[in-house]
Design a protein that fits this description.
There is one protein chain. By secondary structure, the chain is an alpha+beta fold. The strands form eight sheets. The chain has a four-stranded antiparallel β-sheet with strand order 4-31-30-29, with no helix packed on it. It has a four-stranded antiparallel β-sheet with strand order 5-6-7-8, with no helix packed on it. The chain folds into two domains: 79 residues, Zinc/RING finger domain, C3HC4 (zinc finger) (Herpes Virus-1), CATH 3.30.40.10; 320 residues, YVTN repeat-like/Quinoprotein amine dehydrogenase (Methylamine Dehydrogenase, Chain H, 7 Propeller). It is globular. It has five helices and 31 strands.
Length: 503
């Protein structure tokens, strides 16, 4: 046991009633005399709140200053040591606070520089208009105004909204992935269509008790398979397939979890309680590392940028927000006149520079550098229901959007005027359509998993259905692929997570 101030084994240990922290009595009493609060939690603390810890029999006898040869010098050294420990602890706290304040200040400074640059451009543009058209007739004023407005729009298009450090990271990752994609072919280990046709359920789990499972993602690295789920109970649960047991639980959301993503030891979740939480896995417990409170409405979906440093999330109020995962605060916020009724889902291009958001009857493509809508896609005919899920193919040119009318619409970025294909899932008439709640491509874009009343696996190349997995007795809320499409996981309102693969 070590003192929370000096980091040394205390000779006269005491414990705080309020925080449970262990201290050296002389150090904590001096700190209380000077500050009147707990050095760890910052809560008010008095000497009466300290409890002595009974020590066992010890063979070591500490020589006090009165027993030393030069007691005055030893007593002075004791005082200097205590003062140094208190000062060092205070300095560590101040350094941590200054680092956080500095990061905020850097982002604010960068944003301020961009605003100033934009204002200077607008000022210069106005000066040119005044000098060029100052003696013009009123009839030409409207024409000049229109031209200057067009010039300003072009200038605005050139100035990114995100901080330069974020734009540079997106650009660098985009260039690297584009080069890799040209040389990337499906591996020989990728599951074949004939194998998917034989998939059966090999495991299931009920990890949220009597609560429905409302969000799902999986991690499959070096043969270690894990499912991470969010429930209507607001909990986050890690399930280890090898041990068939829960390996971590996180408690913090007050309402149902709507989306969840995994980044190694970090998990990011979105909830109806209007928050986005960042979790870290520590000793079998998912600890809430940060709470992003940028939304004012229930958060419906989120996606993590390939750089793994930022996350985008959408809500019922039609807001798209990009947040810093490590620092736990919003970097940029955007909305559109086409999303006033709210955004239901979001997807991210594999390169990380383009995002897609779904709403009632349309899909919006966003340039993340500008945080602005560039293209609006409208599904045709029967497929014009509410957009429920979005998924980008790893080929970098295809987007899939599912609707509440049992339809999946495919778009090719190179020809966005018309859909590439419209797939009617299950072949049911519109009057009996079943909402599709989630879709997902495998990590090589060869197959598409569709979650509705059942789980359906489609071949991307042939546009044909390979298998229907119907173990759930309730609507499917999430689907996810394991590595190389060797297995599939699904969650449902029937309170279970089910896993499918070869027997």
């Amino acid at each position: 046991m070590f003192c929370c101030i000096s980091g040394q084994v205390p000779t006269e240990p005491v414990v705080s009633k309020t925080s449970g922290c262990l201290f050296e009595r002389r150090l904590i009493e001096k700190f209380i005399s000077e500050n009147g609060r707990c050095p760890k939690t910052g809560e008010p603390l008095t000497k009466d709140d300290l409890l002595s810890v009974a020590a066992g029999d010890a063979s070591t006898i500490r020589i006090t200053p009165s027993q030393a040869t030069i007691p005055g010098l030893l007593q002075s050294l004791h005082h200097e040591w205590d003062a140094m420990m208190l000062e060092q602890f205070t300095l560590r706290q101040q350094v941590a606070q200054i680092q956080q304040e500095l990061s905020h200040a850097l982002f604010q400074h960068d944003a301020a520089c961009r605003v100033i640059a934009k204002l200077i451009q607008e000022r210069d543009s106005l000066k040119k208009r005044v000098l060029a058209g100052g003696s013009a007739a009123p009839a030409s004023a409207k024409k000049n105004d229109d031209e200057s407005k067009a010039d300003e729009e072009e200038e605005d298009d050139e100035a990114p909204v995100l901080p330069l450090i974020v734009c540079d990271a997106i650009d660098e990752h985009e260039r690297r992935l584009q080069q890799q994609r040209k040389r990337r072919d499906p591996p020989v280990t990728l599951a074949q269509p004939s194998a998917l046709q034989k998939y059966v359920e090999f495991d299931f789990a009920t990890v949220h008790g009597n609560s429905a499972v409302t969000a799902l993602t999986v991690a499959d690295t070096q043969g270690h398979r894990t499912a991470i789920s969010g429930g209507a109970d607001g909990k986050i649960v890690r399930y280890d397939l090898a041990r068939r047991a829960v390996s971590g639980t996180g408690v913090g959301h007050r309402k149902a979890v709507r989306a969840i993503k995994d980044i190694g030891d970090i998990v990011v979740s979105a909830s109806d309680d209007t928050t986005v939480r960042v979790w870290r896995a520590e000793s079998g417990v998912l600890t809430s590392h940060a709470v992003i409170k940028a939304h004012q409405a229930p958060v419906n979906d989120l996606a993590v940028l390939p750089t793994e440093q930022h996350v985008i999330s959408v809500d019922d109020a039609g807001k798209l927000i990009l947040s810093d995962i490590a620092k736990g605060f919003a970097v940029a916020t955007a909305d559109s006149e086409h999303s006033r009724l709210g955004m239901t889902c979001v997807g991210l291009h594999p390169d990380g520079a383009v995002a897609a958001s779904g709403s009632a009857g349309s899909v919006l493509l966003w340039d993340l550098r500008m945080m602005d809508v560039h293209v609006k896609l409208t599904p045709p005919g029967r497929s014009s229901g509410s957009i429920t899920a979005l998924a980008f193919n790893e080929d970098g040119v295809t987007l899939a959007a599912s609707t509440s009318n049992s339809v999946v619409v495919l778009w090719d970025f190179r020809k966005v005027n018309e859909p590439l294909a419209v797939l009617t899932i299950g072949g049911v008439p519109a009057a009996k359509a079943v909402p599709i709640n989630d879709i997902a491509f495998d990590n090589y874009g060869s197959y598409l998993a569709i979650g509705m009343d059942t789980v359906r696996l489609w071949s991307w190349r042939d546009r044909t259905e390979l298998a229907t997995l119907g173990s759930h007795i309730g609507p499917v809320t999430g689907v996810a692929w394991g590595a190389d499409a060797k297995w599939v996981a699904s969650s449902s309102l029937d309170k279970t997570i089910r896993f499918y693969g070869m027997e």
